[in-house]
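It would be a great kindness if you could assist me with a short task in structural biology. The matter concerns a single protein, recorded as an amino acid sequence and a row of backbone structure tokens. Could you please explain, in whatever detail you think fit, how the structure tokens follow from the sequence? Thank you for your consideration; the sequence and its tokens are set out here:
___
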Amino acid sequence: MSTLLSRVSLSAVLAVVIVSLTSGFALAKKPPNIILIMADDSAVDNYGPYGSEYFKTPNLDRLAETGVKFTNAYSTPVCTSSRVKIMTGRDNIRNYVIFGCLDKDEKTFGTMLKDAGYATAVAGKWQLHGEPNGSVPSDHDFDTFCLWNFPGGGLARFWNPSLVQDGQLLETKETDYGPDIVSDFLVDFIDQNKEGPFFAYYPMILVHNPFVPTPDSKPMTAADGKGKHAELLKNYRDMVAYADKMVQKLVDAVERNGIRDNTIIIFTADNGTNRTLTYPYQGKQMPGEKGLATEGGTHVPFIVNAPGWVKAGTVVDDLIDFSDVLPTLAEISGATLPDVELDGRSFWPQCQGEAGNPREWIYQYHYPKYKPAAEPHGQGVRNLEIAWAQNKEFKLYADGTLYAMSDRYEKQPIKKGRESKSGKASRKQLQAVLDSMPSTSPKLAPEFGSSALVK
């Protein structure tokens, strides 16, 4: 009798083990949903998790506290180059065409994740359809979209916005606010695809100028100061707060659908703060550096929140840049990487508390729309091409100019032969990086012409 009971008990135990293993395998095989949010024009010091007391971002504060905060994340200095880089996993030296253009022949994370079985959506700002070979979402396998700065639309982005949704210009009125419409669109997408997996790419309309009141803005008070700059800064502060609110709207949507534990939310920004603004940060007045190759033009927030996937309160000091996002999404989703030359590497292991394969340096290439940005170090086509490599301590431009990363505004170049021991080692390391890269983008718009290159 006892032998029979033992056999029954053993069978029951084995059955439980098999079911558990099978369930675990099924869970492991089901890829997570991914929401990638990218604010427009706001540097790292515009956010509470990075020490700002002036800008209030309680929802992002919470995502950082319960997720992973990267302290050394870098975009490029302007929107087009950042969007091209984050979508393709490639440095701009390989694929930059012209401002406002993503070459439709490039492979992006939209196609990569669609091929991996994801439902895909993009909402917010596009501005990638320009000549000579620009893109629309269908070129990159987005199933659905709701976008500003898109063919068939107009210029208004905030109040009474001009938005195109799946090819149709939306009818809006003066009381309609663009960020509400595009975020509602993504909430609907989440509701419709809650069985997953889905990929929602949200390149925000906020917080780019014009700096106008949000639906939550209150009248100015004496504490806000006086004058036009004070008014614009107050509106910008309100816009940062509203962007934070839009992030929470998407968090609420996944929580309401019961899929929070299988949804990874990533937040970053595409470049530094608008140059017309000066804002307080830790007792200093910080000028906006958008468009500039300096620290404030490229150092951006980067938060990864994924309950059950990452350890809460993790802070990662490793260098990452936008080319790393595509390979990270590939590792998260199990997708196959595009069969092209990629420059990024996955930082997903660091998100999970592992050492991973951290970068020792990052490389940047920039063809500025803002010409004064190129004056210090521009070379190549029209003397406008800027290239540099940096590690945590030093930054080396292609023209040979070396700066300490602590020299935020790059006022004190370090003369060759007068470097510290670590400076000499960094110059050697970073020069090797620069030497390993092409001299110019092969896709740089034809009207600029390769014949203008400085040999």
